Request: fold
Amino acid sequence: MNVVNATRADIDGWLELAAEVEYLFGPMVEDPQFIQALEKNIERKTAFCVREHDGLPGSRLLGGVFFSATHAPLYKIGWLAVSSKARNKGVATALVGHLLQLVAVPAEVSMITFGEDVADGRAARNFYQRLGFIPVEQSIPNGPEGGSRQIFKLMMTNK
Reply:
């Protein structure tokens, strides 16, 4: 399972993936801001994906993630989604593992995921906690579907 930089040929695959998770993230496929963010991350080479059967650009996506190192040593995972048919098969682990290899330690990696009240987001919360991310008590706005959100952080140090 290869994590690769997304290309413009992958945009349709990203939008297909986004359509699957809109019930959790809110409207994206028709949202010009999401499309602009996708294109910007592709151009900056900060959009990573796993393609079905490690296919060529334009192949169906199993998962995708945006990553920001703009404020290093403070890094941010901006958006991560895995296709329903690829869940629990190591796609998210491969994506986040790839990102963590890009981090220069010492560093802090943060991301926003679902609050405890979002039943369909519990798997994501548990996933990040298994990787060592810790929930931070900080008030942030609810997601577009109305569910709460929470910041999670991972402190990375030299061993």
Remarks:
- The chain has a mean pLDDT of 95.
- Residues 3-156 form a domain with the Aminopeptidase fold (CATH 3.40.630.30).
- The radius of gyration is 15 Å.
- The first strand starts at residue 3 and ends at 5.
